[in-house]
Amino acid sequence: MSRGAKLEPRVVFGFHAVLARLRADPAAVIEVFLDDARQDARARDLAAGVERAGVRLLRVPAARLDGMCGGARHQGVVARVEAKVATASLDELLEQLKEPALLLVLDGVTDPHNLGACLRVANAAGAHAVIAPKDRAAGIGATVSKVASGAAELTPYFMVTNLARTLDELKERNIWVVGADAGAQLDLHQADLPQAVAWVLGAEGEGMRRLTRERCDLLVRIPMRGAVESLNVSVAAGVVLYESVRRRALPAR
Questions:
Q1: Least enclosed by CB within 10 Å: which of 45, 112, 123, 170?
Q2: CA distances (Å), 26 to each of 101, 113, 125, in order?
Q3: Are strands 102-107 and 29-35 parallel, antiparallel or unpaired?
Q4: Rounded distance, CA 130 to CA 115, Å?
Q5: Do 52 and 96 fall into the same domain?
Q6: In this model, does residue 86 exceed pLDDT 60?
Q7: Structural domain span for residue 48
Q8: b/e burial code for range 145-176 (CB count within 10 A of at least 16 → b)
Q9: Which of 81, 109, 133 is the endpoint of a domain?
């Protein structure tokens, strides 16, 4: 399987994203820029954390931060960070697991806001990794880090060359590939789900590609009780991942 994506040097912005990077890997943080107009408690706490980490702190006008982030909402804090280099392949990660795998596979999620939200929910649910095809996926950038609120720095994200082949390799490891599909006949709550599972979701509106759907061992639908016909992909990811989490917590039968 392909290794995780090697990211270019970049900026991260927003309090959650910057603090998460400081906690996870302070040596990778080159410097932190803080809006010189912010003197509130949150800014003071961040400044203290930056200094404790031994990272250079610069007080700058908000206009400079706007320029660094392309006008995105940075909350008054931006960090320059070293490129995050993957330390393990997907194969190596799976070899090291001491519990059944819980994976999230995204087929066609190209919007960075959706990817950031998916990484956040995957981290919250305890998913071991998020997988996406290189040709139909958003990479980890500043917007993804901001939306993910730190999860982009903590959750392994693997962009693979051939998603269908990767799914086949997961199945060889006895990890079930389960697709969430609005047209599936089987209800999520009625399905007999395995312990080791890779949940596959497509982009909202388009769904999974045909080859991806064909690789699924099982297709289930999330029951919709109201008038809306679909959920945002990150919401759907939360529903299916936490269904696996809930079932793992049930007493063994």
A1: 45
A2: 29, 25, 25
A3: unpaired
A4: 10
A5: no
A6: no
A7: 10-81
A8: bbbbbbbbbbbbbbbbeebbebbebbeeeebb
A9: 81
Q: What is the pTM of this model?
A: 0.73
Whether the predicted pLDDT of 145 surpasses 50: yes
Per-residue pLDDT band for 8 (boundaries 50, 70, 90) equals low
- The reply to whether 4 falls in a domain is no
User: Do 46 and 94 belong to one domain?
Assistant: no
The answer to whether residues 159 and 133 touch, using CB atoms and an 8 Å cutoff, is yes
Q: Which helix (H) or strand (E) holds 128?
A: none
Q: For the chain, give the mean pLDDT.
A: 86
d(CA 232, CA 118): 10
In angstroms, the CA 99 to CA 250 distance is 15
| Segment 87-137, tens digit of pLDDT | 578 998 998 888 999 999 999 998 989 999 999 999 999 999 999 999 888
Alpha-carbon gap, residue 18 to 75, rounded angstroms: 11
Q: Are 130 and 244 in the same domain?
A: yes
Q: Please check whether residues 224 and 195 belong to one and the same domain.
A: yes
**Residue 5 domain-assigned (yes or no):** no
Q: Among residues of the chain, what percentage have pLDDT more than 70? A: 92
- CATH number for position 215: 3.40.1280.10
The pair of three-digit structure tokens given for residue 228, joined into one six-digit string: 């809306």
15 and 109 both lie in a single domain: no
Residue 60 Cα distances to 12, 65, 76, angstroms: 16, 8, 9
Domain end call among 42, 59, 81? 81
Are 56 and 22 in contact, with CB atoms under 8 Å apart? no
Tell the burial category of 185 from Cβ atoms under 10 Å away from its Cβ (0-12, 13-18, 19+): exposed
- In the three-class reduction of DSSP (H, G, I as helix; E, B as strand; rest coil), residue 60 is classed as strand
